[in-house]
Amino acid sequence: MRIESADVLVTSPGRNFVTLRITTTDGVVGLGDATLNGRELSVASYLSEHVVPLLIGRDPHRIEDTWQYLYRGVYWRRGPVTMAAIAAVDTALWDIKAKVCGLPLYQLLGGKSRESCLVYGHASGWELPELFDSIRAHLEQGYRAIRIQTGVPGFASVYGVASSPTAQGERYDYEPARRTALPVEEMWDTRAYLRHVPAVFEAVRHEFGPALPLLHDAHHRLRPIEAARLGKSLEPYDLFWLEDVTPAENQEALRLVRQHTTTPLAIGEVFNTVWDYQYLIREQLIDYVRSPVTHAGGITALRRIFDYAAMYQVRSGVHGPTDISPVGLAAALHLGIALHNFGIQEYMRHSAETEAVFRPGYSFVDGGLVPAQTPGLGVEYDEALAKQYPYQAAYLPVNRLTDGTVHDW
Ligand code: CS2
Ligand code: MG
Fold this sequence. Notes:
Elements: E1 3-11, E2 17-24, E3 29-33, H1 40-55, H2 63-72, H3 80-101, E4 117-125, H4 128-141, E5 146-150, E6 185-188, H5 190-208, E7 214-217, H6 224-233, E8 241-243, H7 253-260, E9 265-267, H8 278-282, E10 288-289, H9 298-310, E11 315-318, H10 326-338, E12 344-346, H11 352-358, E13 363-365, E14 368-370, H12 383-386, E15 398-401, E16 406-407
Parallel strand pairs: 4-5, 4-12, 5-7, 6-15, 7-8, 8-9, 9-10, 10-11, 11-12
Antiparallel strand pairs: 1-2, 2-3, 4-14, 13-14, 15-16
Helix pairs in contact: 1-3, 2-3, 3-9, 5-6, 6-7
Bound molecules: D-mannonic acid and magnesium ion.
């Protein structure tokens, strides 16, 4: 069996996705997610111009050799575009190998370590009543862990809060990429945010009690001492985790945060290799690894990061917003259900349009996701339907401080 073809598929059912489909000479098909929000076409061309020609004729079973070939062979290693491209190839090859074996992929990754992957959903609201409704709606859907994002007085828009109700009248799921000619610019004021957020968590705990696992995403916006202050001010509300408190480049920042708070810290959705974690994990400066399969070089590479993390009792908390496609989410679930140091999986529901194109086999049961039991990843790609949704340029917002200075979004 050899790799016969590799197609780079771009579609936009509600939002843009890039998928690699590898087909073998025996007609076995493997899928891999290569979606990089706001820069989708850069990975698509990296794949079609530079990677696909290297795959044709290769033995699809040699996953490790192909990974090393693409990682070391490129010379220019790491980075989000390269690692998303490698991730798509790696995931598709694991899909093929599991299909050839006639087994769900998790069986090739060591089998089940649990019956399902606990997930968390995204609740948000501008004011408390709306936020409470959003939390209740997620609890009614069966979620058992909730991420809380809130409006901030004086802000016109803010990360994680839907600015207007969805078509169904809901105000809960928030799609950050906008189909606009230029990125939307948002205003940010850290002091206003730091004054407001602890009071929101106090109110949520008062309304929903002490047990419900609550998460919050500071989305890379705080300076180290501000992050330390936020972590400390949220301690009374016993968060499951506080995410991306500071921009990820300055890893030393987490040491200062650790010195001031015991609030668990999650980081890594913008990390692409184990090297981005080496210092943070070894120094016990984080508690959860957030990299998704799609951006960290695939199942082969992410499993290595989790094995390294396990040595330091750091657990998984894989990134799962809607800009990770159902293929990327399915791959995370197969790895997550087999992994010993599994922590939690993010699950922002894809739109009905997206799920019609990708037809994922995973199921949401009692607050957890269960990967498909069919051979491989368990995701089918409807190319005819996908073609009805041509690519539309979309950008993530740009953030500015009140004095106009560009800030981390
Ligand atoms: C966020 C993402 O889900 C999260 O934790 O950080 O929504 C992130 O903003 C998007 O994936 C960016 O594309
Ligand atoms: Mg995040």
